[in-house]
Amino acid sequence: MSSVAVPGCSAASAPGRQLPAGLARLSSVPGDPFGVAVTADGRWSFVSLLPNGSGGAVGVFNDTGSAIPRLLRQIPVSGQPLGVALTPDGRYLLAANGSGATVVSVQAASRDVVGTVC
User: Fold this and answer.
1) Considering the entire predicted model, what is its pTM?
2) Label partner for 20 (CA 20 to 30 A): which of 52, 56, 58, 78?
3) How far apart are CA 35 and CA 8, in angstroms?
4) Each residue of 38-48: pLDDT tens digit?
5) Do strands 44-50 and 32-38 pair parallel, antiparallel, or not at all (unpaired)?
């Protein structure tokens, strides 16, 4: 039987490209942020907010080119929204909530939740 040598472990890191000035913008959010998804055009951001007393939510942010994305609303979700992802076509946001997922229409994000998948 032949064996293969396993490479040793390392904590080394390679230098990366530096972000352009002004690219990173911080925005305060209510609750404890856990995950983020951004639409392809960069106009909408969705942040999963872990419960801090009143239950979990998805924060809906709009970026119209201002210095800081603006929180438009919070969409309540059951459980803990531990992650968010956009469908490949960018039409829907899925927020995993422990027992299923909350489905949000990106187009109607400032108004309502489309449904919950159990």
Assistant:
1) 0.70
2) 58
3) 32
4) 888 888 889 98
5) antiparallel
Q: How many Å apart are CA 93 and CA 10, to the nearest integer?
A: 37
pLDDT tens digits, residue range 80-117? 888 899 999 999 999 887 778 888 888 887 665 555 55
CA atoms of 48 and 58, how far apart (whole Å): 5
Q: Is the backbone of residue 53 left (phi > 0), alpha (psi -120 to 50) or beta? A: left
Residues β-bridged to residue 86 = 93
For 26, the token pair is: 């911080």
- Residue 36 neighbours by CB distance under 10 Å: 14
Per-residue tokens: 44 = 């909408």
CB 93 within 8 A of CB 109: yes
Task: Answer yes or no: are the C-beta atoms of 54 and 78 closer than 8 Å.
Answer: no
Q: Are 84 and 91 in contact (CB under 8 A)?
A: no
